[in-house]
């Protein structure tokens, strides 16, 4: 999952603009999996038996890669399986902020003007239980307050330089300038094996800085999670 956020420079009567995009396989169980170490696939019961039978899961843990701060948010145009609507980066231009990931965090900061979008890029060739049909069911079941988009080609994942799930990208926007990356780090220090509580401290601090027009620290710890499930390469 990748997250991108943008915010405008602090000035009187000028709203702060922020865009946060998160790339994830399953948003609803993220906090549970981080705290207790559950395999997200074990929490899903909606995939038909035919899709689960003999399915071998190979999910290597990986850190988010080094995308330079100041990186411009790439254009995207992706479908939302729940509604069928096509969403573009431009659809979020008018929002003071955008968050794409955790439901609770999203609900809180959307009230403060954060716009939120979530994107799934996992291959349905290897992981059919992550396809758009099940994405739509999840979005409806857990009442996601943000669009949950499907990156079938995986081009958007590559454009963002995404590597793992979850992954967060926070961009800020100054006036008419393009969204620029100010945070590409972890949710917090919690990991499946360290028993630390899930607080979202790191991403919360970054969002608060963006919305208040303050600089975001460049001292950022990378996200750690399962690698994106890329499409199998075609042998020529």
TrEMBL record:
It comes from the Eukaryota. This is Thioredoxin domain-containing protein. It comes from Citrus sinensis (Sweet orange).
């Amino acid at each position: 999952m990748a997250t991108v956020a943008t915010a405008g420079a602090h000035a009187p009567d000028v709203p702060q603009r922020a865009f946060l995009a998160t790339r994830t396989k399953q948003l609803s169980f993220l906090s549970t999996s981080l705290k207790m170490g559950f395999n997200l696939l074990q929490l899903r019961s909606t995939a038909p038996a035919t899709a689960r039978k003999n399915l071998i899961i190979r999910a290597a843990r990986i850190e988010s890669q080094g995308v330079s701060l100041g990186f411009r948010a790439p254009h995207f145009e992706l479908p939302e399986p729940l509604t069928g609507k096509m969403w573009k980066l431009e659809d979020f231009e008018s929002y003071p902020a955008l968050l794409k990931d955790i439901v609770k965090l999203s609900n809180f900061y959307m009230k403060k003007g954060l716009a939120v979008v979530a994107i799934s890029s996992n291959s349905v060739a290897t992981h059919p239980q992550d396809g758009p049909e099940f994405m739509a069911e999840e979005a409806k079941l857990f009442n996601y307050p943000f669009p949950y988009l499907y990156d079938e080609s995986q081009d958007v994942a590559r454009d963002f330089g995404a590597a793992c799930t979850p992954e967060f990208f926070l961009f800020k926007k100054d006036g008419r300038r393009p969204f620029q990356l100010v945070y590409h780090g972890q949710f917090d220090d919690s990991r499946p094996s360290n028993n630390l509580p899930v607080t979202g401290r790191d991403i919360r601090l970054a969002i608060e800085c963006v919305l208040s027009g303050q600089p975001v620290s460049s001292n950022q710890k990378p996200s750690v999670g399962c690698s994106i499930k890329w499409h199998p390469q075609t042998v020529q």
